[in-house]
From TrEMBL:
Belongs to the MAD2 family. InterPro entries: HORMA_dom, HORMA_dom_sf, Mad2-like. It comes from the Eukaryota. Residues 1-53 form the HORMA domain. It comes from Sesamum radiatum. Its main location: nucleus. The keyword Nucleus applies. The lineage of its organism: Eukaryota, Viridiplantae, Streptophyta, Embryophyta, Tracheophyta. Keywords: Cell cycle, Cell division, Mitosis, Nucleus. This is Mitotic spindle checkpoint protein MAD2.
Length: 53
């Protein structure tokens, strides 16, 4: 579900749910991605995606 988490982070960023400063641009798997730096958001998304599988 790693890709699912990255997709959720992208939605949160693009919809402006969290401030732009909460995200860091990184390159993973040869693709540019946005990852949140907020541990609470990481935990929430991890919990959410684990329930989907």
């Amino acid at each position: 579900m790693l890709i699912g988490r990255k997709f959720c982070f992208s939605i949160l960023y693009n919809r402006g749910v969290y401030p732009e400063e909460s995200f860091a641009r990184v390159k993973k798997y040869g693709l540019p991605m946005l990852l949140t730096q907020d541990e609470g958001v990481k935990s929430f998304i991890s919990n959410l995606t684990s329930q989907l599988s």
